[in-house]
Amino acid sequence: MELLKKTALEQHNALINKEISALELTKASIERIEKLDKTLGAFNSNTFDFAIDTAKKVDEKIAKGETIPILAGIPTALKDNMNMKDTYTTCSSKILENYVSPYDATITKKLKDNLVPILGKANLDEFAMGSSNENSAFKIVRNPYNLNKVPGGSSGGSAASVSASEVTLSLGSDTGGSIRLPASFCGIYGFKPTYGRVSRYGLIAFASSLDQIGPFGRSVEDITYLYETIAGYDRHDSTSLKMEVGNISSNLKKDIKGLRVGVIKELLGEGTNDDVKNSVLNAIKTFEKLGATIKEISLPLLKHSIGVYYIVATAEASSNLARFDGVRYGLRAQNCENILQMYEKSRAQGFGPEVKRRIMLGTYALSSGYYDAYYKKAQQLRRLIANDFNKAFLDVDIMVSPTCPTTAFDLNSKANNPLEMYLTDIATISSNLVGCPALSMPIGNDKDNMPIGLQVIAKNLDEMTLLQSAYALEQELNVYNQRPAI
Ligand code: GLN
Prior knowledge:
This protein is of the alpha/beta class. The chain has a single domain, classed as Alpha-Beta Complex (Amidase signature (AS) enzymes), CATH 3.90.1300.10. The chain is built from 15 helices and 11 strands. It has helices at 8-16, 22-40, 48-63, 106-113, 156-163, 180-186, 220-230, 274-289, 305-320, 339-350, 353-366, 372-392, 418-423, 429-434, 463-477, and strands at residues 43-46, 76-79, 118-122, 169-174, 189-192, 212-217, 260-264, 293-297, 398-402, 438-445, 451-458. An 11-stranded mixed sheet has the order 1-3-2-4-6-5-10-11-9-7-8, sandwiched between helices. A hairpin with a 5-residue loop joins strand 10 (438-445) and strand 11. Helix 2 (22-40) packs antiparallel against helix 3 (48-63), helix 9 crosses helix 11 (353-366) and helix 9 packs across helix 12. Bound molecules: glutamine. Glutamine is lined by residues 128-131, 154, 174-178, 206, 313, 425.
């Protein structure tokens, strides 16, 4: 159905003008998932019954002439590390394969309150550790633009499902780029809000000081609506911010004359693919045409961000994942002689190789003899990287770079080389270390028709400027009609 490929706003208008019912739209989405997902692998499980019940409620409201929330009736997916009561939440890990959530995450509750039909739980790299979705314990996800390429990770299923029009919107989590990278590889919009803007209650933790939930969609307006629906203070998450989110959607269409755009020098040099570079330069020219001033900026410590991240994130992961011990959740190894052996065997059988690697790295970095040399140093450098950002933001309002130096790579091309995989995140990781909001938006395609993403970064809490700038650029570039063939 053509409408499935449209934006949430267009679908909302079709619903309130009674061109289609919410039930028809949800059923069309179910049909498409059933048809495509055997090939794509974007979903770990579905929640079709819930989606149908919700769609019926939306139709009742419309029939009674009541106003409906903007996202009511819009087909949506959740990353499978977000709790939804009475559904499987597996983190794409064998250790949680049969785990059923006893409660709703705050974001799930908010979507339910807004009558959003949630269609299912989207595949990811195990515990959100990875950049290609090849670390899922269950199955890979394929890129809708080219089935032999990765969709990016770790929110690969969330991105591919929107890109392939199985659903219209989805949520992902971003610890080092896991929303922005797959958005870029799959030709859609993905947005990581400021750390603390969206409650993490009910998101299964990877690295708590970096994790943030955010939206995927087909336009800046759509991601803004979804962001506004899920953002805000939550007493269940002590790191969530007690601050007004503001009304961004009503203020998106501001002209950007005088906007100061910083181009991150370190991310446009050596190692950046030519097509990516040319598209980014074209986007920068477009900003200029719209009245922005362009300035080259330098973030000298950016080159250390990957090293810092792989100490901080793995240290936090080693601590967060200690709870999966065969006692309280998920898989429990059989035939053990004593409790220690049960812990060991459960973890050995339940976790995949990348998760084990991270737990070992993190435990090492936190161990008493090495704490000062690794963990403490990494925290100090994290502060210095934040200082670099703060300094740059004295001169510019937003910063831009490619989201990734390349477009989507071939399946299996990096899966056996963790280090090379880690380098994919060079452009995205620092925003998590600093906490600031950042998004990826499609700006063109390479010579093989694979999508190219522009990363736009703003100061902490300045989602308004970030989304306004992206909106202005989006109107001028108008590239989203280059859809995947699938
Ligand atoms: N690719 C990065 C990692 O493997 C980021 C993952 C994420 O943001 N969840 O850690």
